[in-house]
Structure formats: C-alpha cells, structure tokens
Specification:
The chain is of the alpha/beta class and 688 residues long. The chain is built from 29 helices and 16 strands. Strands 9, 10, 11, 12, 13, 14, 15 and 16 form an eight-stranded mixed beta sheet that branches. A six-stranded parallel beta sheet has the order 3-2-6-7-1-8, with helices on both faces. A two-stranded parallel ribbon has the order 4-5. The termini are far apart. It binds a DNA duplex (15 and 10 nucleotides) through helix 3, helix 4, helix 8, helix 25 and helix 26.
DNA sequence: GAATCAGCAGTTTTT
DNA sequence: CTGCTGATTC
C-alpha cells in the first residue's frame, strides 16, 4: 500500500482526512466544515483510486460548478499526472446531458434538442400567459415559473392550490401547457437534464449500461443536492458502496434552487452501512473567527454537530462596528482598507460581503471615490446580456427550428416588418394547421389575411435564414465561426446595435458583448476535441455561464461579492456589511418564517470566509428605495460570543471619513511619484 | 411599427 | 431610486 502511494504525500493529511482518502468498501459521508481541506480530500481520494489501478473513465466526480470541476482537474493532475485525464468530472447538469446525449429518444426527445435557461423559460411562460390570458392582472412570470419548476422537480402531476393565490392559480393552469410546449419545441430546461437522465436510467433496457459505467462516484458540495439529483446518484451508484459524498450541512444556502439539506443529514440512513467522517480542523481562520462562527451556527436546531477549531492562535479580535448610516458604513470600510493598505496589506486581501446585490452599489461608489481598485463578482454573466442572447437565439433556432422561444425572440430583430399583428396571424395559422411556427412561416403563401408588405417581409426572412441554415447545421465544427459571421453580417445585427442611440460608453459595451459571441465560437472551434458543430457549442454555452474573464488584471483589487457567491472562497480580511434585521436575516425569510436557519447559515458562510481579520458592520439608518429608514442590528450579532475575541465599536461619521481621505491622498501621492505621473494629468475623475 | 409614459415592485441563484 | 412592463400616442 505504502509503495503504491509513493506519489501521494499522506503526511500532509490529518488522520480524519487520511481516513476519508483511504476508506473503501462502503458508502462514505465526509462532513467537511468550512476550511477543513475538503477539496484536498476529494482530489487525494481520486488520485488514490487512480494509483490503486482504477481506470480514470470509471471514476465520476460531480461538482456544482464548472469552475469547481476545472479546479479539481488541475489539482488532480498535479497529484496523479496523466492518469487523471480520463476521470469524468462534471456538473450534475453536464452529467445529465451526457446521459441524454446517448439515450435521448428514450424520453421522447429528438436530435438537436435545445437547453432553455431561466430567461428562455420565463419568456415562454410570459408568452403563454399572454396567449391564454390566464392572468388578468399583471403577474410576474418568473414567480409563476418558480412554482411550476418546484412542481416539476417533485414530479407532481399538478401544481397544488393551497391558498389560492394568483401565482399558484396561474402556475396550476400553465404547468401542463408548459411541459407540452417544451416537448413541442424539443427543448429541455436545467431540471429536465437531471429528471430526463433519471428517466433514462429507469428504462430497463438502459439501466444496466449506466449503472455499470462508473465504479466510483464522488460528489462535492453534497449539501446542495436536490431530491432529483439524489435519485440520479442512486440509480448510478446502485447500493452506493462506492459512492462518497463530501459536504457541510451548515453551508447549505441554496434551498431556493431546490437544494435539500436533508440529503446530507439523511445520508447514513439512506445508504446502508455508510461511514461518516467529520473534518472539523480548520486551516483557514484564526480561533477568534472560528469561535464566532461556531457560536452563531450553534443556534440552528437541525444539524450535524461540528465545532471548528484551529491549531493556530486566536489572532486579532473581530470587530462589530455600528455606523450612523450606510454612507458612513461604506466610508468606514473604504477608510479601513486604505489604512491597512498603507500599512502594507494588498487590495486583493480584502473582500466585502453583502446579502443582496443592490448593497454593492453604494460600496462601489465609495471605493471609486476613494480610488480603491475593486472588482464585483457575480452579477450578470456574459451570456445573460441582451445582445449576446439575441445572437445566440438566432443560432439556437437555426439549430433547432422547433425552438419557438428563440424564433420569437429574433423574428423582428432588427426590425424587419414582422410585428405583433403579423406574428399573431401566423401563430393562429400554425395552431389551426397544427404545424410549428417556423413551418407556418415557410408556407406564408398559404396564409390568408396578411398584408402584402408583411407577406414580403416574412418571405425575405425565411429566405435569409434558409440561405445560411444548411451550412450552419453541418455537424463539423471547423469553419463554424466564419459561417456564423456571415449570417450575422447578412442579418445586420452589428449595424442594428450601432444604430441605437445609446451613449458611446453603453454602445461600446454592447458591441464588445456582441463580439464576444464570435470570439467564444472561435475559441470553441480551436479547442482540441470540440466537435458536434453548432449544437455542441450552444449546449456548452448554456451550461457554462461561468466567469469568462476571471484571471486577467484582477490581481490587486478588493472583491465585492454576495454571501452566496462567496461560498468556497477565502480572504485574509473580510467585511460583512449590512448586518441588520431585514437585510441579513432577510425580511422575506423572517416574514415567511420559512427559513431563518438558512439566513443563519449565510451569516456563517460569511464569517468563515475570513482568514485573519473580520469586521461586521451595520448602519442605524439606511436609504432604501429613496426613503431613509431606521434600522436595527441583526439578531445574529447578539449571538456572537461575549468577551475578548469580539470588540464592539462605533464608526463616527466624519472622523473615519477624513482619515480615509487623508490616507487615500497620501497613498496616491506615493503612487504617482513612484510611477512618475504628474498629478495634474491624472485628474480624469473629479474627487469632489 | 416604434417611441414615450405611467405604474409598480424590489433576495440570494453554482446550472 | 431604479428597471421593467404594458398601454398609449405619434
């Protein structure tokens, strides 16, 4: 044994980690507290399996993000070299897709099926609401969608009507239609990738093939799995004796996405003879920070007991800072950063964590004013921007002409004289003739009651698309970018953006976004092993909306990030801002009394991001929606331990602000003289 | 068919 | 205060 593992340095693992790496023969649950070396355990475990002679393609590692999969692959390669190459590492959705790619016809899909993301789904529902006039009042389609998806995930036949609220009613009416439409459009949503895969595995003719495919299955972030993901794992892993899962129930913060923390709590019940290993030695934070984290999370009733501890010292006390208002809070943060940077800390050592995105704005403004470089993590990803989505919608619809959501999105873009009225007439024809919208467009000659102009417009559109379609549908990837470029040129998409009367700044942004589509295509084309043409590209982009431009130039910047997105990250210095009632236990969570526990876990996640220093700040007044309101400190602050490790202070309004400004000025003077910049030249931004 | 206006609601969101 | 939707107007 020892010889076989010569490449793995087991001495760097603690006894629990090592037990988790070496365990064999029964299902394994690793309860990995924050900062306890979870990723190390998984990568070492996979490396160990490889060195034991398990072929890489028989090992499946499942993660929640592409980023995590990528990181794991890199770290595994370091440990196990080229053997790591064949290990199957993928997200749940990608796993589902790879199953459906082989056996899609079993669940009634056709070749070229499209993957709808949330905004496609919302458009579909909106369109249905309009057409069926289900809702007399204006209802938010995305809220209806929430209910529809919840029912679908539970494989309910109907959306239950409990309280008879409008959203429930609409969801109830639309649910069967939604499923019907998705089927007609040959489209699946993210959940369908999982549910469809489960259906494939339940098909007797395919079950065996799939349950034999993987010899070992490892799952990361198990606390975030949903019931359908659990089903998929069970069907794939059989009795589960070679299933190992790693997670932390205290960091389960995605109930809204369907995650059920119960999966992790019930693991040892669901999988017979499962072994449970707790990792609670923390390698990230000081004990003062860990004590605070432990104290807060201890107030959650239902959880696996873990008490994080560290072999390192107590470190600095954590600070609870009372601020008169949100402005002062932001200034306190900026001032403190500036002061510490002046003392030798780097900007990238700092992160500012908040509950909701809109809190980021004021922080951004203040940092900009103080000339502190920052980056905002999260927010809209490239593939969510309108112009990008428009371009992709063209491609999606050409790849899958039954994809009506995409077709409707682009049919009059740029405006080509096919307005709502024309479209409605054609839709009626399509419905009465029982053909797809695209087929109807192609037979525009047979549709009565269209104006000559509209008729001609439709004809032109059809001709334009058909002129490019064959070339684009080819399954080869080479030359794809060029063909798409031709299509976009013919459509005049770029010109359309140019013609808008946006400001130069916005316009530049939009063009940049638009051009990213072609860049992404070229990258895809050049990628070794990309094949499958447009279809593959589209699925890839649908499932990979991760950070595109993460690495570049983000080095020396402060990070602004939501608590949700901060999970898995760590920073030497962390500000947890907006520690207020209605904000950190978010108002909605308190009102619905549904899950205060999840809010507390969010707080816990935030605290445990900090390695050395932690500030928890709140404001006594905050301007929300244009009105100033008094605010109360978060109840979670009361749950912090009393005494030495925690200092409670007040940021007085002008003191810190001025101090910060002075520090900023001093700093910039230094920078300028170092860089040899004349101060007068660099006054592009008003300092006021 | 496109531009403008009024009214309303406002968490988080790995895919 | 903002951003989005639907309705109204040109």
């Amino acid at each position: 044994m020892a010889l076989k593992h010569a490449h793995l340095d087991f001495h760097t693992l603690n006894p629990q980690q090592r037990a988790a790496v070496e365990h064999d023969g029964a299902p394994l649950l690793v309860l990995a507290g924050a900062g306890s070396g979870k990723t190390r355990v998984i990568t070492y475990r996979i490396a160990r399996l490889l060195l034991d002679g398990i072929p890489g393609e028989r090992i499946l590692g499942v993660t929640f993000t592409n980023k995590a999969a990528k990181e794991m692959r890199e770290r595994m390669s370091e440990l196990a070299g080229s053997r790591a190459r064949d290990v199957q590492l993928s997200t749940f959705q990608r796993l589902g897709l790879s199953i459906l790619k082989e056996d899609y016809e079993v669940v009634g899909l056709r070749r070229g099926f499209a993957i709808y993301d949330t905004s496609d789904q919302t458009s579909l529902l909106r369109e249905m609401m309009r057409r069926l006039s289900v809702a007399d009042r204006r209802l938010d389609a995305s809220k209806v969608l929430d209910r529809v998806l919840a029912a679908k995930r539970q494989r309910l036949e109907e959306v239950p009507i409990d309280w008879g609220d409008d959203y429930e009613f609409a969801a109830h009416e639309l649910y069967p239609r939604y499923r019907e439409q998705m089927r007609a459009y040959n489209a699946v949503d993210f959940d369908d990738l999982i549910l469809g895969a489960v259906d494939v595995l339940r098909e007797p003719s395919r079950a065996l093939k799939w349950s034999n495919r993987f010899q070992h299955i490892l799952v990361d972030e198990y606390q975030d799995t949903s019931p359908d993901q659990l089903e998929l794992l069970r069907d794939l892993a059989g009795d589960g004796h070679n299933l190992s899962v790693v997670g932390d129930d205290d960091q389960s913060i995605y109930a809204r996405r369907g995650a059920v923390a119960d999966n992790i709590l019930a693991f040892t019940r669901q999988f017979a003879a499962a072994k449970e290993i707790v990792l609670d030695q923390n390698y990230r934070s000081t004990n003062n920070i860990l004590r605070a984290a432990n104290a807060v999370i201890a107030n959650n009733a239902v959880r696996k007991m873990k008490n994080l501890w560290s072999a390192s010292g107590d470190g600095d006390a954590i600070e609870v800072v009372a601020c008169p208002g949100a402005d002062e809070e932001a200034e306190f943060v900026a001032g403190t950063i500036q002061r510490l940077v002046y003392q030798g800390q780097s900007y990238q050592d700092f992160a500012i964590l908040y509950r909701s995105n809109n809190q980021g704005r004021l922080l951004e403004e203040t940092l900009a004013l103080e000339r502190i470089p920052y980056r905002v993590v999260g927010g809209q990803s490239l593939f969510d921007r309108k112009d990008v989505r428009d371009a992709l919608a063209y491609l999606s619809f050409i790849n899958n002409p039954t994809d009506e959501v995409s077709l409707r999105r682009v049919i009059n873009l740029p405006p080509r004289g096919i307005g709502p009225k024309t479209l409605q007439r054609i839709t009626e024809y399509a419905e009465s003739s029982r053909v797809s919208l695209w087929s109807a467009l192609r037979r525009v000659d047979r549709i009565d009651g269209l104006e000559t102009r509209a008729h001609a417009s439709v004809g032109n559109f059809v001709a334009l698309i058909e002129g490019h379609a064959d070339g684009l549908r080819a399954r080869t990837t080479s030359g794809l970018a060029e063909r798409v470029q031709h299509l976009f040129d013919a459509l005049g998409l770029r010109e359309h953006i140019l013609e808008s009367d946006d400001t130069a700044k916005v316009l530049g942004r939009r063009l940049e976004n638009f051009d990213q589509v072609l860049h992404a295509l070229r990258r895809f084309e050049q990628q070794a092993g990309s094949s499958g043409g447009l279809e593959s590209f589209l699925r890839n982009t649908a499932l990979a909306r991760d950070s595109e431009t993460e690495e570049e130039s983000d080095v020396s910047k402060v990070t602004l990030i939501t608590l949700h997105s901060a999970k898995g990250l760590e920073f030497p210095c962390v500000f947890l801002v907006g520690m207020e009632e209605d904000l950190l236990p978010h108002r909605r969570a308190v009102e619905e009394a549904s899950d205060l526990g999840e809010e507390r876990r969010l707080c816990y996640v935030g605290i445990t991001r900090a390695q050395q220093r932690l500030w928890l700040t709140y404001a006594s007044r905050r301007v929300r929606y244009g009105k100033g309101e008094p605010r109360n400190p978060s109840r979670f602050l009361d749950e912090l331990p009393e005494g030495e490790g925690v200092i409670r202070t007040a940021a007085n309004a002008d003191g810190d602000g001025e101090e910060a400004e002075a520090a900023a000025d001093a700093f910039f003077e230094r920078m300028r003289s170092q860089l040899g910049i004349d101060p007068r030249e660099s006054s592009d931004e008003p300092t006021s």
